[in-house]
Design a protein that fits this description.
Length: 349
């Protein structure tokens, strides 16, 4: 198959989950391309096109790191491709990582992804589903209340203060649009800068005030789902426990968190069983769930990651599971002569 991965910027991409998937697809003899969100091309009366970067077949990469080095070197090749040349477009860019100078890039991947979908390319996750879930913390609020901590979304200071008082003067504050644990605050009765924190967050947009979960001090787990099911290989599951760093309540890796293995608990199974039907219906193929004990605290539908940490905690490389699942979808698309919608194909097993 011919597959293209959309990232924020090819030149600045780091060796994470997306690169692992690219390397695996290449190992399986697929044509693998990479593009940034600024590499789409549209002209009236012409097929939608992309400016892609790829590693020539004569360059053998044994690891994802080596593949990325080739991709970002002068040895990589450039090619303009029409949509009809591709079987799959895998949207993997993270809009929340775009700086203020690249606001144009935040929704470009999804917007052009919808156009690629209309051209008959299999787009993962479904581009229309990604549009609906673009603010994933807001999409998260569409899930049933029983599996989530209590929360409000507002830009009003008085709402935040009322929530604070009603939750025993302890809460978590974070921006509605953000990732990686940035600008996330644990607030208690001793916080002296609450007014300043609220002002800083409201200047960015909407604020989420969320019930504090005491179990969060022990970290959370990232559960990776494919087609609404936990990734599984050799009896092991695609689950990584993120342990908080010293003096830190956030367990995100870029906030000092460390990784460890975690079993698939009954609480996790319950949360997945409730969330999965909606994810499947919406066409969200590859999703990350962040769970603290018996509560789902966040959902990542735009660029779930963590697979690059699996080896160091003793989990197998799940990249082949993901690529095999995509291969099946491409085969189904051909067998049914394009008569199954992208949204349905995206989560077909």
């Amino acid at each position: 198959m011919k597959i293209c991965f959309v990232v924020n910027n090819v030149e600045s991409e780091t060796c994470g989950t997306t690169v692992y998937l690219m390397q695996e697809a290449r190992k399986r003899n697929h044509e693998v391309y990479a593009m940034g969100v600024g590499d789409f091309y549209f002209a009236q009366d012409e097929a939608l096109s992309i400016y892609s970067t790829y590693v020539p077949k004569n360059l053998e990469s044994k690891t994802p790191k080596e593949y990325l080095e080739y991709l970002q070197s002068s040895k990589a090749k450039k090619k303009k491709l029409t949509a009809s040349h591709l079987d799959v477009l895998f949207i993997r860019n993270n809009p929340t990582e775009e700086g203020s100078s690249r606001q144009w890039a935040e929704q470009a991947g999804i917007a052009f992804g919808r156009m690629m979908q209309q051209e008959g390319v299999l787009v993962l996750n479904d581009a229309y589903a990604l549009s609906n879930a673009f603010i994933d913390k807001l999409y998260f609020e569409e899930l049933p209340a029983g599996i989530k901590p209590d929360s409000i979304i507002t830009r009003k200071k008085e709402d935040v203060m009322e929530f604070f008082e009603s939750h025993n003067k302890k809460m978590v504050l974070k921006p509605l649009e953000g990732s990686g644990g940035r600008d996330v605050y644990l607030i208690d009765k001793n916080e002296k800068n609450l007014n300043q924190i609220i002002e800083n967050l409201s200047a960015q947009g909407y604020i989420i005030a969320q019930q504090y979960l005491p179990a969060a001090k022990e970290g959370d787990v990232r559960v990776l789902l494919l087609n609404g099911r936990v990734m599984e290989k050799d009896g092991k599951f695609g689950i990584i426990k993120r342990v908080t760093g010293e003096g830190e309540f956030r367990s995100n890796f870029n906030q000092g968190g460390t990784g460890d293995k975690s079993p698939l608990t009954e609480d996790m199974k319950k949360i997945i069983s409730i969330a999965a039907p909606k994810l499947i219906r919406d066409g969200l193929f590859f999703v990350g769930l962040d769970i603290v004990k018996d509560k789902l605290i966040e959902i990542n539908v735009l660029s779930p990651g963590g697979m690059d940490y699996f080896e160091e905690i003793g989990l197998p490389d799940f990249s082949d599971i993901v690529i095999k699942a995509i291969e099946k979808k491409v085969e189904y698309k051909k067998l049914y002569n394009g008569n199954i919608s992208n949204q349905v194909l995206a989560t077909m097993e």
